[in-house]
Amino acid sequence: MIINSLMKLMSLNNISKSFNGKEILKNIDLNIKQENFISIFGPNATGKTTLLNIISGLLQADNGAVVWENEFYKNRVSYVFQNYRETLFPWKRVWENISLPLKLQNVKSAECKDRATDLLGKFAINIDLEKYPYQLSGGQQQLVAILRAIITDPVLLLLDEPFSALDFAKKFELQQKILEIWHEIKATIIFVSHDLDEAIYLADEVVLLGGTPTGIISNVKVEIDRPRTPGDLLSKEFVSYKRLMLDNFLSTQNIML
Ligand SMILES: Nc1ncnc2c1ncn2[C@@H]1O[C@H](COP(=O)(O)OP(=O)(O)OP(=O)(O)O)[C@@H](O)[C@H]1O
User: Fold this and answer.
1) Which of 10, 24, 18, 20 is nearest to 215 (CA)?
2) For residue 75, what is the DSSP state?
3) Ordered structural domains, the chain, with CATH
């Protein structure tokens, strides 16, 4: 089954952004649908994080507009930054880190702890809630950052290269977990990745960024059935998506497959 809501969440209309006189993003147009999983793939320094910063409202575009279908959605965005380790509070326990957004809404500590416990239970995540971040593995820290982002029921979850520092097995485990979380929370996910297999495997749509300044090279809908399993990585269908995207990408570098 392909989960693919037709309802629009937001759009990027002709977004451009420069830093110190150098144009990084140029004329980015993108329609984002509700409950879609969108991967953004592109080389280093193409402006992927800049794009997430603009979508989240942390950064203003120089030109163009971020248009939300409903103003209410704008305040329901959660963002897991690339440097997730630095965003966990070392002096707070796991449950306090996960429930921090609730604490900031003046939810009482006992309820914060209950909600964090429920969230771990719901996704069968085995992390000791009483531990501090430094006592966790990288993968566990990343999960804590993701759980903190979803505890407020976002409509849009921005994930900036969340698994890039993990080994193959852990990365694979967390990819399955993020699909499970996405399926359950029914939010839109925009997922930045440097890994083309990962970008295709997870997504309904892969947005390929490239060029100087950066534009959208292609926007490919991935219609591989869900739920997806590791075997999909070897399927003819998967390989043909990969070939198409590699072709698109390498043609911008004047390299032929
Ligand atoms: N606040 C800023 N001030 C000046 N330059 C910036 C700023 N933010 C980003 N840049 C520059 O814009 C370019 C794009 O940066 P960005 O972090 O968005 O790229 P990226 O595609 O996410 O990179 P990576 O894949 O390495 O994470 C880089 O050259 C970066 O140095």
Assistant:
1) 24
2) T
3) 8-76+153-252 (3.40.50.300)
In this structure, the residue with its CA closest to atom 6 of ligand 1 is: 19
C-alpha torsion sign, points 160, 96, 123, 36: negative
- Tell me if 64 CB under 6 Å of ligand 1: no
150-162 confidence digits (pLDDT tens): 999 999 999 999 9
CB-count exposure of residue 19 (10 Å: 0-12, 13-18, 19+): exposed
- Ligand 1 atom with minimal separation from the 42 CA: 21
Is any atom of ligand 1 closer than 6 Å to the C-beta of 46? Answer: yes
pLDDT, tens digit, 9 for 90 and up, residues 59-107: 999 999 999 999 999 999 999 999 877 899 999 999 999 999 999 999 9
- Nearest Cα residue to atom 31 of ligand 1: 45
- The ipTM estimated for the assembled molecules is 0.97
Q: CB-hemisphere CA count at 13 Å for 254?
A: 0
Work out the burial of residue 124: count CB atoms within 10 Å of its CB; fewer than 13 is exposed, 13-18 middle, 19 or more buried. exposed
Look up the pTM and report it: 0.94
Q: Which of 40, 41, 44, 49 to mutate to test the pocket of ligand 1 (most atoms within 8 A of CB)?
A: 49
Task: Tell me 232's DSSP state.
Answer: G
Q: What are phi and psi of 157, to 5 degrees?
A: -115, 120
Q: If you average pLDDT over residues 136-162, what whole number do you get?
A: 95
Cβ–ligand 1 contact at 89 (below 6 Å) = no
